[in-house]
Write a structure and sequence with these properties.
The protein is mostly beta strands and about 300 residues long. The chain contains 3 helices and 15 strands.
């Protein structure tokens, strides 16, 4: 009996592990629709060059950094929209495995850029942005095979789960289009496109559906230019500062710290040092809003 059952069993396809070492031009756009099915049908194939794109940027990902700092990225926006001032400006965002650096043009600043740094070692996970954009959850299912962006045999993987938020939050479906190595000649499967489809609920408005699409295939190159992840101290003339709310070292902890660091809030005149389990005091007060005026991924 068990033999006959096993003969008819076909194991589910293995979830592909996409290439995580590349540079590409990412183009983003959104489609509003009336249902999940209409959101999928509304995406043109092929996508017209730069049609309805919002905040296109160049992204380099890497997962081969030094031990403990394997995950790194570099992002360059030519015209990033500031959600507070509603103005567009150039921006560099580089995470070198331990520190995150944000550079924005300023002709009067040293080296021509303002630079803010944030110590972020240990916070990078391949389930967080930007690596989660191209990652495929092991629970995803293969729903189709198609031709896309000039490649045949492209696999479509999808997963639906509740969006982050309070109980009762709507579900979100993530769809990933992956070109196999046989089609691209790369070392690992290549993510061509992702879609995030969910129902939008706003007070006083009719519910509708939205599909946020990212296109990865424009100028996609395996590997990384060496200069992308150099520490910013190597950038001639640019000076990087900690955020204004970053804590600083203190020397008045009593009793002295047996581990971690003695830190205090520099913006509180009455602050006294306290012991915290951090590598550097600048990790405090916590993740929060790392950089003012920088839009999310």
């Amino acid at each position: 009996m068990f033999l006959s059952l096993s003969l008819g069993y076909a194991p589910p396809p293995t979830t592909p592990q996409p290439l995580m070492q590349f540079c590409t031009n990412i183009s983003q756009f959104k489609v509003n629709c009336t249902s999940e099915a209409s959101c999928i049908a509304a995406v043109p194939n092929p996508i017209p060059p730069y049609a309805n794109f919002t905040d296109p940027y160049t992204l380099c990902l890497d997962d081969t950094g030094p031990p403990g700092h394997e995950l790194r990225y570099a992002r360059h926006d030519m015209a990033l929209m500031n959600p507070v001032t509603h103005t567009a400006s150039e921006l560099f965002d580089i995470f070198n495995g331990s520190h995150d650096f944000i550079m924005t043009p300023n002709k009067s600043a040293p080296g021509g850029y303002n630079c803010v740094q944030k110590y972020a070692a240990g916070q990078a996970q391949n389930t967080t942005m930007p690596w989660s954009m191209v990652g495929i959850d092991p629970a995803a299912t293969k729903s189709a095979t198609e031709s896309l962006d000039g490649f045949d045999g492209v696999e479509v993987w999808s997963q639906t789960k509740p969006m982050p938020g309070p109980p009762g939050a709507p579900n979100e479906t993530k769809i990933v289009h992956v070109a196999p190595t046989a089609a691209t000649g790369l070392d690992k499967p290549m993510v061509l496109r992702t879609s995030f489809i969910h129902e939008v609920r706003r007070m006083g408005q009719d519910k509708y559906w939205a599909n946020g699409i990212r296109e990865f295939s424009l100028n996609f190159k395996q590997g990384l230019p060496d200069h992308k992840f150099d520490p910013f101290v190597a950038v001639p003339g640019v000076v990087c500062h900690w955020p204004k709310n970053a804590w600083v070292d203190a020397d008045d902890c009593a009793p002295p710290c047996k581990s971690g660091r003695c830190c205090k809030d520099p913006n509180d005149p009455a602050a006294k040092g306290a012991c915290f389990g951090v590598d550097v005091c600048q990790q405090l007060p916590g993740p929060g809003a790392l950089f003012e005026g920088v839009s999310p991924w």
